[in-house]
Amino acid sequence: MTVLKERPAPVRPAQGRSSSLTPSQRLLGRDWRLGAVFIGPTLVLVAGLILFPILDSIVTSTTERHGADTVFVGFDNYTALLGDSVFHTGVLNSFVFTAYAEIFKVTLGLIAALMLHHMRRGRAIVAGLILLPWVVPTVVTAFTWRSLFDPIFGSVNVLLTDSGIGPALAAIGLVDRWPAEWLSDPALAMPSVILVNVWKGIPFFTVTFLAGLKAIDGHLYEAAVVDGASPWQRFLHITLPGLRNVMIVTVLLSSIWTFNNFDLIWLMTQGGPGDATAPYVMVAYSKAIQQLQLGAGAAVTLVMLPIIAVLVVILVRMMRRNDLPVPSDLGRRRLTPAQRRALPWVVVLASTLLLVWASPHIVWKAALVLGVFVVLAAAVGRVVSVLATRGNRLAARLVGGTGSGIALVGLLGFVLAPLYWMAVTAFKSDDQIVARTDDLWPTPWTTEQFTNLFADRAFGTWYLNTILVSVASTVIALVCAALAGYALARLRFRGSQSFTVTILLTYVMPGALLFIPLYQMMSGIGLNDSLWSLVLAYPTFTLPFATWLLVGYFKSIPADLEEAALVDGCTRFGAFLRITLPLAKPGLLAVALFTLTNAWNEFLFAFVFITNDDYKTLPVGMQSMIFGDVVPQGQLAAASLLISIPVVVMYGFGQRFLTEGLTAGAVKG
User: Fold this and answer.
1) Element housing 71 (H / E)
2) Of 187, 282, 473, 575, which sits 20 to 30 A from 436 (CA to CA)?
3) What is the pLDDT of residue 9?
4) What distance in Å separates the CA atoms of residue 636 and residue 143, rounded to the nearest whole number?
């Protein structure tokens, strides 16, 4: 009898050990040649504009300028900071500014996201309106709120006085006197700029939290309801754990941005009154650019690097968690489960004690204001829970809907009122602005401010400069990021994971570490006071982000389509052009949207590199319109409207791609 045996399956050679691979491919990876071509432009830009300038900044921090000579002084610049009271104040201001801003952004952003999540109609419209403060340029935010806070021409004091809220604030001690001098009173200047940062940051938190809420499995809530869990218990045991990763990534990313904020504070207060609002970045700017002590300024930025590094390392680990393999025992062998649960509370307690020590005049006021929001939200939730438990679901829906409606109206009022003020001020005459007539509705409407803006200023030149720089830097970032993102997502070569981590590190690296060495570099090659300096500098913050986002997006595209094209005889580059790029069009549009608007809004590099009116961009040009105490309110409002319209239109058409980009790569976790 013949015994039939199954034919053994062919044994495939181990990956990277195929006999068809050359020795160089075995050593460097199967696709190392193509990978080098694809990541080459990004590698050159990242190394030349980010890594090298940081190393150069370290060298610069050990030098000091003596007349026309630069001499080596070792660690003298660092030791001098130990007794520098201005630096101490700057670090303290940065911590206070960041801590309070993040607390309020997390709380209000979470409340807004929960309200939007439970909306059945109009969610997209409301979300688009809430996104506006994040979309409008920072220079518009600063000048609009500066106008509102003006004790003579602003409307904040008038509205709070007429409503009786202002005198009540003075009565309970939230302000020392009424009417308040928001930006010129040392006790109110810091809370005022924190308020503006919260206004601008709430949309980012709301959008990311809303995306996180959509990702939570609805069956968990259904099972909890069956088990008799109350709304508060469902929030505590399902919602918060489900948002944990998104919240950590969002808070860390926002903290890095806020801690290194320069433009908002400079445009609103220039660090004043005195040094009441000056962050450490402003101290570095003063030493390096205004006093021409580049070594001392570089030391200020580098001495803060350990604090930023801790945030960056945690952020990198969180953002890599779902993308790259992480050793299973990394970070677990050191902490027990109980210790990991207790760690957030320890951090919160330590931060609270530090805030009490650093800002005793602010902490109780912030706690009171925040407590009002939390207590009102908890009270409405409790009433709804009690009514639902007693079976009165109609009353529960009525109370919940009414509470959410009032909160939503208040949130939209807070978000849209400054933008409305900016828009109507642009159509007032100078006489109306000075006389404070028809504050909320110009009578008559006039285009006087727009006419004067183009007649008396180089506004048209600034606008053209901004368009040229933004488009050029966006094209560079888009081409380089598409090539590098595809290589890191698809090709196999040695060092790809390390380069991916490097891209992520440079993505979250603050511009405060780069503006001094880049200023030196541009001066050395003679590009200061030229648009080329901005075109070269802007990829430092656009390229890493664009690459990281596209890596995540390319990974979400099935590789089978490319493999089928390769089988049919298409080259890898041909498959990239004909298959991958068309499918990645939403991701590419999201990258273009982000990079274009970031370049459009950028202030710090343009402020440091450009002094000639002929080469200024819109944010710097608008800042130069203010001469001492002379503030052209109407022309600034008109300029703010004109600079905001293109960005708002782009985000209006690209909101869907923005959300898809965030979930695909930028803040994945």
Assistant:
1) strand 69-72
2) 187
3) 43
4) 7
Amino acid at 375: V
Is 415 within 8 Å of 202 (Cβ atoms)? Answer: yes
- Rounded CA-CA distance 123/151 in Å is 37
Q: CB neighbours (10 Å) of residue 574?
A: 13
CB 46 within 8 A of CB 545: no
Look up residue 511 and give its two tokens: 């511009």
Low-confidence ranges of the chain (pLDDT < 70): 1-19, 315-335, 337, 339-341, 344, 508, 629, 654-669
Q: What per-residue confidence (pLDDT) applies to 479? A: 93
CA pair distance 234, 226, nearest whole angstrom: 11
CB-based contacts of 77-82 (< 8 A; 24+ apart in sequence): 77/295, 77/296, 77/298, 77/299, 78/299, 78/303, 80/296, 80/299, 81/299, 81/300, 81/303
The backbone torsions φ and ψ at residue 654, rounded to the nearest 5 degrees and listed phi first, read: -110, 15
For 251-261, how does the pLDDT look when each residue is reduced to its tens digit (9 = 90+)?
888 888 888 88
How far lies 451's CA from each of 81, 100, 429, 455, 621, in Å? 49, 41, 11, 6, 17
What are 244's two structure tokens?
Answer: 């944990």
For 72, phi then psi, to 5°, come to -80, 130
Residue with tokens 């049919």: 568
Q: Could you give the maximum distance between any two Cα atoms of the chain, in Å?
A: 112
Can you tell me which residue has the tokens 């045996």?
Answer: 5
Q: How far apart are the first and last CA of the chain?
A: 61
CB of 533 within 8 A of CB of 522?
yes
pLDDT in tens, 417-464: 999 988 998 998 888 888 777 777 888 888 888 998 888 778 899 999
| Distance from C-alpha of 132 to C-alpha of 416, rounded to nearest angstrom | 8
Q: How many CB atoms lie within 10 A of CB 38?
A: 25
Cβ proximity of 108 and 198 under 8 Å: yes
Question: What secondary structure letter does DSSP report for 1?
Answer: -
Q: List CB contacts of 655: < 8 A, sequence separation 6 or more.
A: 124, 127, 128, 131
Tell me the residue type at 621.
G
Q: What is the per-residue pLDDT for 328?
A: 35
Of 52, 141, 200, the closest CA to residue 644 belongs to 141
Tens-place pLDDT, residues 163-200: 888 888 888 888 888 888 899 888 899 999 999 999 99
List Cβ neighbours of 475 (8 Å cut-off, separation of 6 or more): none
Sorted by sequence, the CB contacts under 8 Å of residue 267 that are 6+ apart come out as 138, 139, 142, 143, 146, 603, 623
CA–CA gap between residue 583 and residue 634 (Å, rounded): 46
Question: Is the Cβ–Cβ distance between 74 and 59 less than 8 Å?
Answer: no
- Contacts of 427 by beta carbon, 8 Å cutoff, 6+ apart: 442, 445, 446, 447, 449
